């Protein structure tokens, strides 16, 4: 029988199918969605459009990443932190930040470790020479993860060093993000693969049924050499970060060199990402080393992502703000936090803590600036001081509380970074380093944002900004 004369389904059958779809999807949403607004929204879509709503929910509403992570963790949980838990450098703290240290220990299952030397490096000009030198000196292993790894002059320098290390027998593993380092074509990925360097693209697929993964990005920046020296922070690998080249769109940033027992936790985080992407287990002394003391810093790695580490960086920041007595200083390229962080910052300011938020005068993503302008007024009302940094665009992600505790790494202060991206930060208990970072942020308080600046926007600009704010979870 030709398709154009097939009899339509009886109305009762269609109604029954719609009812079953709505009930089935609604039950799944009720049992799995923690966010009430999200749950109500998905149920509403499925009630209004049962067939299309079900398809959309199956594609975009189910966190398959977390399910995959739980499956992988079940086979590795005993192995993952065994070495760090038994380290002779584990530390416990007393005093103001003791509750924070205890909470983050339970939250992350990672101990605080002492005996570390943590050096602050600024821009590609300050960081790249140290990173390239470490790769040159590698004898056993190199683990590299970068959100953006461009196939340009700077990227070419890194690839040349990585290929040379591979040729001399060093075990090299490179992980790049499936979006940040090129979705349709990744020059870095193909160049390294062609040269025989093991390279993987994190959650990359052009298949329609895997489209949800477009929204989940590995934003971490990690380099570990021989399990002895590590680098992490906000710095990508690209010409734009090398200010000496005077690029068209320069990006200033802050990165950190790590030496000491904390490097093991950094190696473990990178090894987990590699396993998540490739199912290859990295093990042995070539990747994980026991360390002697290299400094006085006490530190811990904190990872976050839409897997088993959901919102852990945000929880760490919230607890630190709660314990603040004198000041909280934040520096971030994009400032679009959710209601919890906004409320905590406002409450800190209301109880007399000096709260400074330092953001670029203009970022490299205008819609983020528009949304920020529409979202920031409640903080100004509470007495939070918002400062804007003059160009070049500063991509640093720094937080210091009471010039004693610091949190640095890859995580921006926006909902995407705090909920959707895979991020890595480092919490540091070191008064000297906290003072250095605090002074750095103080020097970048160029222009203060006021209510007058927001009020003088014309009506159309305010509408544009308010509309951009609706996209906060995905910007």
Provide a compact summary of the structure:
This protein is of the alpha/beta class. It has helices at 11-32, 36-48, 50-61, 64-74, 77-80, 82-85, 98-108, 123-136, 153-167, 187-194, 262-278, 312-323, 339-350, 366-375, 377-382, 415-420, 431-443, 451-455, 459-469; strands at 90-91, 112-122, 141-146, 171-177, 199-202, 222-225, 229-233, 251-252, 254-259, 297-304, 327-331, 335-336, 354-360, 385-389, 393-394, 398-401, 405-409, 413-414, 423-429, 447-449. The chain has three domains: 8-62; 68-95 and 113-301, Endonuclease Chain A (Endonuclease, Chain A); 312-474, Endonuclease Chain A (Endonuclease, Chain A), CATH 3.30.870.
Detail the topology: elements first, then pairings.
Elements: H1 11-32, H2 36-48, H3 50-61, H4 64-74, H5 77-80, H6 82-85, E1 90-91, H7 98-108, E2 112-122, H8 123-136, E3 141-146, H9 153-167, E4 171-177, H10 187-194, E5 199-202, E6 222-225, E7 229-233, E8 251-252, E9 254-259, H11 262-278, E10 297-304, H12 312-323, E11 327-331, E12 335-336, H13 339-350, E13 354-360, H14 366-375, H15 377-382, E14 385-389, E15 393-394, E16 398-401, E17 405-409, E18 413-414, H16 415-420, E19 423-429, H17 431-443, E20 447-449, H18 451-455, H19 459-469
């Amino acid at each position: 029988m030709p398709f154009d004369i097939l009899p339509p389904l009886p109305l009762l059958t269609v109604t029954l199918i719609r009812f079953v779809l709505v009930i089935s999807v609604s039950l799944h949403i009720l049992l799995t969605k923690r966010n009430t607004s999200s749950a109500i929204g998905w149920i509403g879509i499925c009630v209004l459009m049962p067939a299309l709503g079900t398809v959309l929910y199956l594609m975009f509403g189910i966190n398959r990443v977390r399910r995959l992570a739980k499956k992988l963790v079940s086979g590795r949980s005993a192995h993952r932190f065994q070495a760090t838990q038994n380290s002779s450098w584990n530390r416990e703290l007393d005093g103001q930040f003791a509750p924070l240290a205890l909470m983050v220990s339970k939250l992350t299952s990672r101990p605080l470790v002492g005996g570390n030397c943590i050096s602050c490096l600024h821009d590609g000009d300050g960081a790249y020479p140290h990173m390239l030198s470490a790769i040159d000196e590698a004898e056993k292993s190199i683990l590299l993860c970068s959100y953006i790894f461009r196939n340009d002059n700077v990227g070419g320098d890194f690839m040349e060093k990585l290929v040379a290390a591979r040729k001399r027998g060093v075990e090299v593993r490179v992980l790049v993000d499936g979006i940040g380092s090129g979705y349709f074509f990744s020059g870095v990925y193909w160049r390294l693969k062609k040269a025989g360097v093991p390279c993987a693209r994190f959650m990359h697929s052009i298949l329609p049924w895997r489209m949800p993964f477009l929204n989940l990005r590995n934003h971490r920046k990690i380099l570990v050499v021989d399990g002895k020296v590590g680098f992490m922070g906000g710095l990508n690998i690209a010409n734009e970060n090398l200010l000496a080249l005077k690029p068209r769109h320069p990006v200033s940033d802050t990165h950190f060199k790590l030496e000491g027992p904390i490097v093991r936790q950094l190696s473990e985080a990178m090894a987990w990402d590699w396993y998540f992407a490739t199912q290859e287990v990295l093990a042995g002394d070539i990747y994980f080393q026991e360390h002697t003391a290299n400094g006085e810093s006490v530190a811990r790695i904190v990872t976050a992502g839409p897997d088993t580490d959901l919102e852990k960086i945000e929880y760490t920041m919230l607890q630190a703000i709660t314990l603040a007595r004198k000041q909280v200083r934040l520096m971030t390229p994009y400032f679009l936090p959710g209601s919890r962080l906004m409320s905590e910052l406002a409450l800190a300011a209301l109880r007399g803590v000096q709260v400074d938020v330092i953001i670029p005068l203009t970022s490299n993503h205008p819609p983020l600036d528009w949304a920020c302008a529409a979202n920031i007024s409640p903080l100004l009302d509470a007495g939070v001081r918002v400062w804007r940094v003059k160009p070049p665009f500063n991509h640093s992600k720094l937080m210091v509380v009471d010039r004693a505790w610091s949190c640095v790494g890859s995580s921006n202060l926006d909902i995407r970074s705090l909920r959707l991206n895979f991020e890595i930060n480092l919490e540091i208990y070191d008064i000297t380093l906290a003072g250095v970072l605090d002074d750095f942020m103080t020097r970048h308080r160029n222009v203060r944002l006021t209510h007058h600046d927001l009020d003088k926007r014309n009506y159309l600009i305010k509408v544009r900004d308010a509309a951009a704010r609706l996209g906060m979870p995905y910007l």
